[in-house]
Design the sequence.
DNA sequence: GTCTATATCTCGATAGAC
DNA sequence: GTCTATCGAGATATAGAC
């Protein structure tokens, strides 16, 4: 499996700073984050941040660019062609939920950038698809193929993909709200996540199944 | 229909400030937002902000408290009991999507607070349910009733509700990403939203339907 | 590479004229 | 109620010793 956080060409110190910055930017946002907060999280002093990454903007852009690449690659990682569409879907849901679960800060950073208008998204997504040539359209293609093979009913593949992503991702975004309104999710979040994989596969697969 | 933005007891100037603050907080987050930015958006000077709302924290709490109340009420507004569960679901999806579409900034503010850890969520949600006695559990109850009546198969109602909310809401959160990856959504967002209502009802209703 | 001290600037908040 | 000017805290960033 690929590295969970910082790019591999980084030194140990760079990785530490990178990981700390990711956490703080994800929580506080691009402008809300404080260099002192990042320094504290990395357990170093402020001057070191500027030694390794010129300024706040440079640090943010490095973190964000890598986050975008991770997210683009996540589709490819979670999608493994199985004999049936049902199995492919099941594996994708499990894999994508696990991806988001283990990349919580990266996910929150992506959402932050979207909420802020997504001005940085366009260029970095283009850059990421160029480097890793893993557009999320492979997922769209998978749905299209399943429709053509008659494994699922005719649906707009873009909406179907968006629905899968939404359901696998949003409950992490709204985790505090979910935990307030649903005490079992508060008591044992991991169990709730596993439950959710089952629920989502059942609901989405039946929702896509052909008429009888 | 209820007021779209600020509490009705506000004066014109207070409303202007309130609306501007909502927009900026929704975009930049609680800490990322700048008082100067809010003043600019309201087309007044900074001193006026402090004249009407003591300080940044007070302004934020006023905006956030109102936003929470709107969101709690949104379930009640969108949910009208229809003869069949299918109709109830259809009307809810249409209503809730429209609610989010017309309360975009409020929605983004809720998400921001969740991403930041949701520390203010608990108290304000309790307060809102006390005032307006409209807990989102009415939705859960609707699903439970439909299960008991045999209108849909047995499902965990909490997961089902979370799935409906996710799919109706998340594509607004990720709108910049969606528009980059799917050009038709960029060209005509409103048409895309309408398409999505149809897709969501079809997929979710079939997903919940009883075995034949 | 690491740390202390400090320069520079931005931001929230207030004073006080009108 | 509205505006200009400004204070003081806290933030980014750098200088320079080690």
Sequence:
């Amino acid at each position: 499996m690929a590295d969970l956080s910082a790019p591999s060409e980084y030194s140990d110190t760079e990785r530490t700073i990178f990981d700390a910055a990711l956490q703080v930017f994800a929580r506080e946002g691009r402008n809300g984050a404080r260099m002192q907060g990042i320094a504290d999280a990395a357990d170093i002093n402020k001057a070191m941040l500027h030694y390794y990454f010129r300024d706040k903007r440079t640090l943010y852009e490095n973190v964000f660019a890598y986050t975008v690449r991770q997210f683009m690659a996540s589709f490819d990682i979670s999608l493994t062609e199985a004999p049936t569409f049902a199995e492919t879907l099941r594996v994708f849901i499990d894999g994508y939920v696990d991806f988001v679960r283990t990349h919580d800060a990266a996910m929150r950073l992506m959402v932050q950038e979207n909420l802020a208008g997504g001005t940085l998204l366009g260029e970095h997504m283009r850059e990421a698809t160029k480097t890793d040539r893993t557009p999320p359209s492979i997922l769209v293609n998978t749905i299209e193929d399943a429709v053509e093979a008659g494994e699922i009913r005719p649906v707009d593949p873009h909406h179907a993909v968006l629905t899968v992503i939404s359901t696998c991702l949003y409950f992490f975004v709204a985790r505090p709200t979910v935990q307030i309104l649903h005490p079992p999710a508060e008591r044992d979040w991991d169990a709730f996540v596993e439950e959710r994989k089952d629920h989502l596969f059942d609901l989405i697969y039946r929702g896509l199944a052909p008429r009888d």
User: Anything to note?
Assistant: Residues 56-78 of chain A form the longest helix (23 residues). Chain A touches chain B through 58 residues (CB under 8 Å). Residues 13, 44-45, 47-48, 51 of chain A lie near DNA strand C (CB under 10 Å from a C1'). The two ends of chain A are 40 Å apart (CA to CA).
